[in-house]
Design a protein that fits this description.
Rossmann fold; 7-stranded mixed β-sheet
């Protein structure tokens, strides 16, 4: 990854599908001096993503794309990313899978946060799977995105203990709290 030159931050797009709690956390992080990135674009696959409110709140450009015709949409997104000089992409609760073609356009420049200790529990329902399997630990992972689901090189992980009285909601809350610390730390690690 290129080093920072002076105060120029790396233009970044964040892709979301939901509440945007990681997005909000990343926006706060980018407002600090130490952040190597700036968030210049927010992309969502649904207008129902409440995280889009943060685009308005923090005056960040946002675009919503319907992913039904993925090839056409990805071409439009790539054009937009190029026009806006976006050099880095953070997936934050983005519930669509990007194609190989798309990922190849940003080699080693797309990262994702996943609510499990990868390679365990790729895909969805990670917390219920951890509880159902009586795991002692859960956690979250920030990894580079490659063409295989949740399989890219791991940047950072955070492990937390699953307590006997933990349920789906409590575990989700505990892991999310760690995600908010881990995502900025992983970005710092990449660019330093």
């Amino acid at each position: 990854m290129e080093k920072l030159t002076g105060l120029k931050k790396i233009k970044t797009a964040v892709f979301i599908s939901g509440t945007g709690s990681n997005l909000k956390n990343l926006i706060k992080f980018t407002k600090t001096k130490k952040s190597p990135i700036s968030i210049d674009l927010i992309i969502s696959n649904t207008n129902k993503a409440t995280g889009l409110n943060f685009a308005n709140q923090f005056k960040i450009k946002k675009k919503i794309f319907n992913f039904r015709k993925i090839k056409i949409i990805e071409k439009k997104i790539l054009k937009l990313l190029e026009k806006d000089e976006i050099k880095f992409i953070c997936l934050a609760g983005f519930m669509k899978i990007l194609s190989k073609v798309f990922i190849k356009k940003f080699p080693g420049k797309i990262i994702n946060i996943h609510p499990s200790l990868l390679p365990k529990y790729k895909g969805l329902n990670t917390h219920s799977r951890a509880i159902n399997n009586k795991d002692k630990f859960a956690g979250c992972t920030v990894h580079f995105v490659n063409e295989k689901l949740d399989s890219g090189k791991i940047i950072l992980q955070k492990k937390i203990k699953i307590k006997i009285n933990d349920n789906l909601a409590s575990l989700k809350k505990k892991v999310l709290k760690q995600e908010h610390k881990l995502y900025p730390a992983a970005i710092m690690k990449i660019f330093n």
